[in-house]
Design goal:
The protein is α/β, with parallel strands linked by helices. The protein contains 15 helices and 13 strands. The strands form four sheets. It has a six-stranded parallel beta sheet with strand order 5-2-1-6-7-8, sandwiched between helices.
Length: 387
């Protein structure tokens, strides 16, 4: 492998709107690697810098594929790996050379953690004024700088767990590290915005994202309900505080998500359920009425839904324009995406992964490199950086 100036690999077939950008990825675990995988899918050349022991997620198992953690595999395709011990002067020199050439540098060390290595924003930007330097932390660089940045902590502190679970039961975490993923998305957006600014001015800048701020933004209607309306939300199980029906309802053989997001959808629902007069009941005519009288409306809907199976209702309600859904396991979700022609799975090398969710009419995402082994490309990258 030979690497051209600017990050492109000689002889490599490239595609994607970010073709030609070099990303120095000093991040690990989830938020940063997810962000850099998205950038890599879109054509950026990403060099993943790992410590001698590798990214922590390499050891997060089960599940595994060929004795490699699927957690690691899921967020590290299209990258090249180099292992560097920043305490070793020779390795540190390589890291600094990489930062000096990068269009983008991204890190999620504890705030200030790279300063002693001369890899903080101020030092890197002094020698590379065009760099877009992105930092991801748990709680920002102020009073929360020393808080460990774990997603579960943020789910608890932000209030998300207070909203998740049955009303009379304990709070629950979300099934994924939702704020790590959200912070990764926010970091990607910030990087792209800063690159656009650089295109106009020639100067990079420091982009900062923290999980707690991403969480409060991502709580959308609930955080707005508090900051704008003074309302502290509470756990409602699968119910929605502002809509009804908008939850699983039992059928003859299991539950089906049933949604009436507006009055027209509720009328269609009632037509399929053979309850044509129900929308004219003053308790149920408008969404705010249905929400206020949900305990009276629910048993009426449940009684009708109990007459048929969830698959039968799913077919007929969807055909009528009523949003509804079976509650699948992950395999069912992938299967439906395949049935709908979304081609959710791509195989890179011999490693299957989930397709990048963004499509472009002219510059499609690329799927060229499987997730790298630790230091798999170290020799070539060192040669390029020291030449």
């Amino acid at each position: 492998m030979a690497v051209e100036e600017g990050g492109r690999v000689m002889g490599e077939q490239r595609s994607g709107p970010l073709d030609g950008l070099l990303v120095a990825d000093f991040s690990r675990i989830l938020a940063g690697p997810y962000a850099t995988m998205l950038l890599a899918d879109l054509g950026a050349q990403v060099i993943k810098v790992e410590g001698p022991a590798g990214d922590d997620t390499r050891t997060w198992m089960p599940p595994v594929r060929d004795e490699v953690s699927t957690y690691y595999l899921g967020i590290n395709r299209n990258k090249r790996s180099i292992a560097l011990d920043l305490k070793d002067p020779a390795d540190l020199d390589v890291a600094r050379r990489l930062a000096a050439r990068a269009d983008v540098m991204i890190e999620n060390f504890r705030p200030g953690g790279l300063t002693r290595f001369g890899l903080d924003y101020a030092t890197v930007a002094a020698g590379n004024s065009r760099v877009v330097y992105a930092s991801i932390s748990g709680f920002g660089t102020g009073a929360g700088a020393n808080y460990p940045g774990y997603d579960l902590m943020v789910q608890a502190i932000s209030g998300l767990m207070s909203l998740t679970g049955d009303p009379d039961g304990p709070p629950y975490r979300a099934g994924i590290s939702v704020f790590d993923v959200m912070a990764g998305l926010h970091a990607s957006i910030g990087i792209l915005a800063a690159l656009h600014h650089r295109d106009r001015t020639g100067t990079g800048q420091h982009v900062e994202v923290n999980l707690l701020s991403s969480a409060l933004s991502g709580l959308v209607n609930h955080s707005s309900g508090y900051v704008a309306g003074g309302t502290v939300p509470f756990r409602m199980g699968n119910a929605h505080p502002s809509l009804f029906p908008y939850e699983p309802l039992p059928t003859a053989d299991g539950e089906l998500i049933v949604i009436a997001g507006n009055d027209g959808q509720f009328r269609k629902l009632c037509q399929v359920l053979d309850l044509p007069d129900l929308p004219d009941d003053p308790r149920f005519g408008r969404n705010q009425d249905r929400t206020a009288h949900r305990e009276a409306l629910r048993p009426i809907l449940v009684e009708r839904l109990a007459r048929r199976t969830k698959d039968e209702w799913f077919r007929d309600l969807l055909a009528a324009g009523v949003p509804c859904a079976p509650i699948n396991t992950i395999d069912g979700g992938v299967a439906l995406a395949e049935e709908l022609g979304l081609d959710p799975v791509v195989t890179v090398g011999d490693v299957p992964g989930v397709r990048n969710p963004i499509t472009f009419s002219d510059t499609p995402a690329r799927y060229e490199l499987p997730p790298p082994g630790l230091d798999e490309h170290g020799e070539e990258i060192r040669a390029w950086l020291t030449s």
